[in-house]
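Example S7 (structure tokens).
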């Protein structure tokens, strides 16, 4: 089956939905999403969205905090552009129906997180992402020009070079092959403009607070299609996820530290002042590394996040979701310090884009976590990502609307997906085993603290798994598990290869073999592209 539209959006988090809403008045939109529409990383965001809002704050301070957290690797022009668009992004979200928490005097209740020198984070209690997703999904569902395809998994980008079997530079994106999980059929979605808003890659690691959908699909597809990818070594580990056998890496928002919580060892000693002048509000890479070091030095399984000194009613009112969830695991956060460990959280690298969200494949945009815009550099400042999602969605939409006014080159005919001689697999265990192997390998060898030896070992293992996947992929009919496995393997390889190349420690990339930051050779993006 072939389905066409003016705009094709893959992904239904904040970036995908804002983009769809920004173009839908001017053309038809197909929005593809892997599971149910609100099953996104956006929905799980607790902390909030950063934007300058108070008299004490300024764009300059927000820019400086972003540059410092990013270990001076962010592109300052991009940082300035995003920060200056912050107030408008907040206004847009409010216009689309998002409700942020207010104080008694009805002014917005701005919170703080690690690395922020001011209170500038809009939030909806401790479920900001859920509120944003709720409002945007409602607006999207109500728009007559947007057709939503849930339980549809993108398989691969369709490019002009692929369909014409010619070498074309730069190649042009014509759409996406998509697996309908209900019918098991792969459909052809064609559009003059395709937007990847597929989110992150947390599932590449054994422990992650990301949802199960975070398998790096957009990055893997774009890389296979020849797009440039950048800075994959900068995987952010959130310092505080709940340590409990049944909690599946439940995030405990950095806003808890923003409101005064203190990290302690098991014996009650507060330790962050040994690591940074901002103590518990140091940037995230520093806090995660400090916790890792404390756990390894003292042989502990976790550290503790202590907010018990705060008033009980304040805790329950400000963090109802965290309070209820921890209580369901037998931890009353008003009385007990919360056992926490770091877990994979956010990828600062991704598909390299310009300031309009354009990749180097013609008519292919990438927005949100899947993209590497230059905002985050070597480490993302907390709550800058939802902001980036809105700002880039709007910029990509603006550029897309200009593009469809122009006369686009003729559109070649696209072949339908051909299953060839593929058959149904009777060995799902191979897929499950390879999933586990990749995730364990990445956790053990490509985690918070790295070394050349471990990275080389990891690369060897991932490449072996990839060979197996390649054989398996062509022999068997594609399933969502198989598609995701192929993607996490590709993303794992890209992370390792980028990490091996960066011979310095900077931000989230910390290696015991190159402890110094090398501004002369490495104050730059780490670009990687497939050779055909
Ligand atoms: C958090 O609430 O700690 C996560 C916020 C973020 O990652 O920006």
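Recovered sequence:
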């Amino acid at each position: 089956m072939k389905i066409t539209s003016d705009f094709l959006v893959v992904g239904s988090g904040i970036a995908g939905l804002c983009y769809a809403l920004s173009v839908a008045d001017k053309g038809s939109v197909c929005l593809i999403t892997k599971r149910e529409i609100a099953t996104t990383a956006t929905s799980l965001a607790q902390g909030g969205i950063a934007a300058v809002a108070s008299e004490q704050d300024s764009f300059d301070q927000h820019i400086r905090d972003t540059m410092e957290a990013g270990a001076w690797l962010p592109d300052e022009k991009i940082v300035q552009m995003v920060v200056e668009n912050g107030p408008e992004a907040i206004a847009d979200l409010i216009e689309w129906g998002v409700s942020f928490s207010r104080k008694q005097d009805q002014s917005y209740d701005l919170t703080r997180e690690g690395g922020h020198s001011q209170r500038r984070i809009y939030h909806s209690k401790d479920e900001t992402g859920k509120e944003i997703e709720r409002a945007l999904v409602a607006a999207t569902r109500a728009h007559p020009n947007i057709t939503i395809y849930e339980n549809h998994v993108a398989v691969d980008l369709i490019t002009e070079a692929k369909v014409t079997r010619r070498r074309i530079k730069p190649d042009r994106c014509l759409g996406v092959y998509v697996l309908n999980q209900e019918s098991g059929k792969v459909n052809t979605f064609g559009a003059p403009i395709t937007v990847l808003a597929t989110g992150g890659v947390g599932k590449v690691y054994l422990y992650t607070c990301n949802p199960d959908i975070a398998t790096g699909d957009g990055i893997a597809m774009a890389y296979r299609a020849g797009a440039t990818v950048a800075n994959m070594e900068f995987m952010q580990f959130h310092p505080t996820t709940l340590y409990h056998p049944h909690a599946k890496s439940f995030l405990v928002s950095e806003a808890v530290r923003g409101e005064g919580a203190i990290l302690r060892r098991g014996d009650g000693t507060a330790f962050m002042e040994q690591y940074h002048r901002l103590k518990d509000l140091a940037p995230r890479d520093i806090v995660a590394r400090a916790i890792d070091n404390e756990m390894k030095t003292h042989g502990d399984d976790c550290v503790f996040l202590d907010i018990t000194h705060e008033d009980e009613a304040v805790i329950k009112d400000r963090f109802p979701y965290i309070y209820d969830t921890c209580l369901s695991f037998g931890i009353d956060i008003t009385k007990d310090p919360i056992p926490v460990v770091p877990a994979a959280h956010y990828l600062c690298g991704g598909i390299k884009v310009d300031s309009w969200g354009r990749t180097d494949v013609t008519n292919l945009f990438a927005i949100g976590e899947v993209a590497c815009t230059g905002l985050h550099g070597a480490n993302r400042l907390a709550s800058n990502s939802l902001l980036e999602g809105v700002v880039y969605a709007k910029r990509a939409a603006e550029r897309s609307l200009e593009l469809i006014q122009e006369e686009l080159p003729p559109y070649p005919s696209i072949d339908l997906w051909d299953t060839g001689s593929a058959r149904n697999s009777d060995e799902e265990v191979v897929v499950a085993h390879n999933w586990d192997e990749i995730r364990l390998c990445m956790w053990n060898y490509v985690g918070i603290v790295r070394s050349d030896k471990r990275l080389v070992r990891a690369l060897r293992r991932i490449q072996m798994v990839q060979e197996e996947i390649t054989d398996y992929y062509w022999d068997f009919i594609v399933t969502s598990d198989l598609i995701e496995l192929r993607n996490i393997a590709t993303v794992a390889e890209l992370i390792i290869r980028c990490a091996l190349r960066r011979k310095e420690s900077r931000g989230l990339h910390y290696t015991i073999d190159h402890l110094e930051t090398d501004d002369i050779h490495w104050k730059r993006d780490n670009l990687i592209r497939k050779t055909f």
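Notes on this example. DSSP finds 17 helices and 19 strands in the chain.
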